[in-house]
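Sequence in, structure out. Go.
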Amino acid sequence: MIRTGRADLAFDGLRSEFGLPEAFPADVLAEAEAAVSRSPGDRPDFTSLPLVTIDPPGAKDLDQALCVLRDGDGFVVHYAIADLGSFVTPGGALDTEVRRRGQTIYLPDGNVPLHPTVLSEGAASLLPGVVRPAVLWTFTCGADGVPTSVEVRRALVRSVAQFDYATVQESFDAGQPHPSVEALGVFGPLRRELALRRGAIELQLPEQEIELDGAGWKLVIRPRSEVDSWNAEISLMTGMAAASMMIEARVGILRTLPDPDAKAVGELRKSAAALGVPWAADVSPGAFLAGLDGSSPEALALFTDATRLLRGAGYTAFDGTVPEVVGHAGLAAPYTHVTAPLRRLVDRFATEVCLAVSAGEPLAGWLAEALPLLPSLMGASDSLASKVDRASLDLVEAWVLGARVGEEFSAVVLRAGEREGEVFVAAPPVLAKCSGERLPEGEAVRVRLVEADAGERRVRFAAV
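Output:
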């Protein structure tokens, strides 16, 4: 870890390198401040719903609040989403600025928000104990977890509690979950099973995170809890329902990912055979990957190899004609983003489409004009966010290992070429290049650290 005593300034270089905005223009801040006091209009009052939020510890930009209830043998799921449409005037200074930003960019020492914090961490955030305008999705589902009816409307809501993932997981482990999420322990696994039946593909690769550690930084692996995955299923169900609305109405914007081609699946099957991992001919790639022990070296290599199945993601806008590709291969279903409008630009517009379609109304002119612009705006911001995230990890990896050049580590070979491969070192958790001829893919090896250059953000190992 870095021990400079200047942890608060450690990532300023990345902000400058990637041209991240330092502050919002004065006219944008003024518009946001004025929007705080704007009336949400006449909308139904659902403040009696005992909604709760589940987010990382300390989060203030709370996009979603949920309540999952049993209804006989089935379920009723209420999912409230922050209503940015109540605060952003189309064509105004704020709208122009958030289109330029695209999404919130996260760095270890603070984020570069999509919206001014007076909205994203204040008036628009679904903070506990306060009335907020929201877009409320209500799903009536059968005993199998499949929705039989979906409603979406503007509403007033009030969250009764703010939780983090670990706290909710601990409550389930102790057999004492909050009443608002108790049924999530049944509904979440049902949705996970439905995903596997559809052929959804999930890669259980180690998720590196950077944490502040005194005067420095450290790398950790964030384990994904059951509650984390159950909660994600609610968001995915909402995005799939929104996509279905758009396709039926022949207007909207989808998050698309082409199905993997036969060659990519064939290469993954070859890798599994080479690693001695059985894969029955009638088992889909998603079901095969889901059945692996995520902690095994062979599984880590196969998850890495399977990234080739999930290439080509993008955004597809349409109006009048349904596009040829409407599905998302990772989910094995059509899907769109509607559940994180505080942090992602496209969600606000996609939500407005759903509200118009649900009400049987044509799209507003400003909305119809914006749809074809969104794929390029989101593509650029996705690319920037990915680059910043990777650069932050590369920088901290080099800092953490800077004084350990020459030491040996245990590693797992994730990919192997003729003279170089990619390895995962568990302690500290680092993904890096490793030189060596024909490294044994999917096996544990010993490697020596030969370079850790923070200036170049580069870490390299060599096989021992």
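Check: Residues 1-7 have pLDDT under 50 and may be disordered. The two ends are 24 Å apart (CA to CA).
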